[in-house]
Amino acid sequence: MGFLQRNIVYNVALSLSQVLFPLLVFPYVSRVIGPSGIGSVTFVDGLTQWFILVAALGIPIYGVREIAKAKDDLQRRSKVFSELFVLHIVAAAVLAVVFVSSFLLIDALRPFRPLFWIGTGILFASSCMIEWLFQGMNAFRYITVRTVIVRALVVALVFLCVRDPDDTLVYYGITLGGMVANVLLNIWYARKFIHYRLKGLDIRRHLRPMIVMFLISVVSGIYTLLDVTILGLFTSEVDVGYYGAAMRLVKLVITVLVAVSAAIVPVLSFSFGSGRTEESFALLRKSFNLIVFIGVPAAVGLYIAAPNVIALFAGPDFLPAVLALQILSPVVLLIGLNNIFGMQILNPTHNERFFLYAVLAGMVVSVTLNVVLIPAYQFLGTAMANLLAEAVVCLLLLAFVWRRVGFRPEWRSLGQAALAAMPMVVTVGLVRRLELPLVVETCALVAAGMLVYVTIQYYIWRNPLVDDMFRLFTARIWKR
Fold this sequence. Notes:
Strand content: under 5%
Number of strands: 0
Order of helices and strands: HHHHHHHHHHHHHHHHHHH
Helix content: over 70%
Shape: globular
Largest sheet: none
Number of domains: 1
């Protein structure tokens, strides 16, 4: 198995753990602490993520690229890492002061203060995660093994410790504990790749090239995190809980698609930097076809199976979130494409400013539509605003990639995937007529839909990805 294929496998395995563990935890937690508890955690975590985003200064994106450039030079790599690590910690400390002051002084945030103290710990822990170091060094095996082990412990703690509606703090505190465990393991394992140093650092040299990365992160956060904040201010914790449940499901699917980008970005940064344009374009075409191959049926499947998924994942109290999930289902594919056009193309080719222009437009659309739609449609308005903002970003990124880089996606694969996914609608209708128990019916829907889709892709469109995935899967099994 090739180097890049191994990294993609590890990253997809990591993403599957991000999907499977919440599938175990959230149905239990949502039933224990209810929509109000879930809404409170979602609201506080949304604000916390804002401060995490600003404190990061774009380092999670910029750091991957810079570490990848210096991966063959220990001294240079150690210097770059130490400079960015110190910068991140200092920024987090400054933002923590602002964060604590905000929830102590603003009366509207008073009921959530205990959760905000946990959020402060999450803010500090995020600054020490240094995930960008391991991504830049292509250490995806370590990331996967570490994350799976820590998440398994977190799942066990949730089932052991979250027992009644008053355990909202315990639930959020366990999240912090998992992050601290990751931080400690990362700081220890990082010694394999760098030497920690505090002397001879030149932090200022990173500030100018990081500006665009920082602005991209902040502006992206405005339309991906501010929606929850606006919804929480205009409506109730219950509405936030409904929207939060729908978005959690969408993000679970998105993590698998984004995993491909995370594994490919360091390779593309090196390839574009070496002037290997044709090689880079060939890799990008494969990436586009893979995202489309997975993203289209995932979006269609999420739409048609939304009632089952919400009932199974969150419980009957969250059934109003079904329509929100259906509205958000196309976002799965849109974000997958945005990662290709932005993270895989514009960022490695140093066209970050055009990435920024696209997310600025998305921010304007998101904020405007949230303010207009939430008073009339509550959490459904937030879902509509999210979908339209992502669509605007996707179209603009495509236009910039087309003009600045000259990359042309293979649109035929998108049409073939859409046609192959359409019969899934009929399959779902047939399965539902059997009136099976919820769990059995949901599993049957997924299995039947996948079987129909893959069969059409293989026997009608002769898609080589089916063969590639089959060989990759069987190779892993025989190796064991």
